[in-house]
Hints:
Blueprint lengths: L1 H19 L1 H38 L8 H15 L1 H6 L8 H5 L2 H35 L13 H26 L19
Helix pairs in contact: 1-6, 2-3, 2-7, 3-7, 6-7
Amino acid sequence: MYELGILAVVVVALMAATTAAAAAVGRALHVLEHVLLAGSVVVILFVMGFVGAEVVMRYVFNAPIPGHLEGSELLMPMIVFLALSYTQATHGHVGMDLLLDALPSGARRFARSGTLLVSIFVCAILAYFSFKHTYQLWLYDDVTMTPPYFPTWPPAAAIPLGYGLIAFRMYLQVLSLLDPRRFPAGEPASAGPHAFE
């Protein structure tokens, strides 16, 4: 419980700092999201090639690639979490808007802001505890159980990174909802039907 209290104080302090430098944070986050999205795409292409090569090596040459299953599994968190914040920025996550769409504009804005604030704290908790787990994996030099013994901490590091960045993105969206003139959304024009007013 003590850790959660400290984490709540840190999150509030980061929110205050982000509010003070929202434009700079928004620009930096936008660039970082695009870089990580490109990294996620590269990992997807690599996994496709890796799995394809494994199939050819196994069934054509009868020489499977060692560690193909563990290697592919380890790359999955990178595919998901590197693109998490970008997906939030473009409103690409699945949303249930039926009740929200029935609300008046002011109530809808309030409900979305509240939902985002709760989500920020949930993502901060997940980022913190997944970081602790990643740090333990790094300290123990944890590897997969079969050769070639891939280290497990690099893919695990994508999880706190993804949760941390999506928390920042959601806070920028809260600011934009509360005061759109002072904090413009700065999100892609192709935000789609779930874009905030």
